[in-house]
Amino acid sequence: MTQWFSRGHFWTNFLNLEVERELGLVKVHSRFSTNFFPSWDRSQPMHVLGHNGEINTLRGNVNRMKAREGLLKCTTLGLSKNEMKRLLPIVDASLFDSVTDGCYLRATLDRNGFFPGRFYVTHNRRVIMASEVGVVNIPPEDVFRKGRLNPGMMLLVDFVKHIVIDDKVLKKQYSLARPYGGTAQKTDHKIERHHELFP
């Protein structure tokens, strides 16, 4: 990581970044591409999104669905073409990612929990999150709270209110925001009786 900064790669990606300024938020991601030969021109400066999983291109996702079209043709279910579109595959990526708009930072761990996501909250209200413990040296007496994201967990840092919102509070807040239960019942399609057709 130190080599990455010292070689000047960081600063050439952020030419408009003033070096002498107070920052409330810093996101760094130093992972290279894994699907093709790594090179600096293919590195991903994470201005808004940081992840340690795979994010495919739109073309790749469209081609993936076109390849599955033959499997989705079925008259036995009695579903219209529009209803069949709802049977798109569930995204089941293995990742730990974080997204920010400058006011909020949201971190999520996938439902399988393959990638670690550990965090510290210090007494002077710094939040440090990384895939491993020890990325930043923090004296134990400075740690107010520490934890890890479990499978499917989220963590939200609100830079406006200067608070950290935990998974349970965050999910409760959003689950009560709209009548999701009613929406799910209206769009639910039961296909148990047809399971013999799809080995």
TrEMBL record:
Cofactor requirements of the protein: FMN; [3Fe-4S] cluster
One GO MF term attached to the UniProt entry: glutamate synthase (ferredoxin) activity
Pathway(s) per entry: Nitrogen metabolism; Energy metabolism; nitrogen metabolism; Amino-acid biosynthesis; L-glutamate biosynthesis via GLT pathway; L-glutamate from 2-oxoglutarate and L-glutamine (ferredoxin route): step 1/1
EC number: 1.4.7.1
Keywords, alphabetical: 3Fe-4S, Amino-acid biosynthesis, Flavoprotein, FMN, Glutamate biosynthesis, Glutamine amidotransferase, Iron, Iron-sulfur, Metal-binding, Oxidoreductase
Positions of transmembrane segments: none
Alphabetized InterPro entries for the sequence: ET-N_metabolism_enzyme, GATase_2_dom, Ntn_hydrolases_N
GO terms classed as biological process: ammonia assimilation cycle; glutamate biosynthetic process
Pfam families xrefs: GATase_2
Every Glutamine amidotransferase type-2 domain range: 1-160
Family: Belongs to the glutamate synthase family.
The protein's name in its UniProt record: glutamate synthase (ferredoxin)
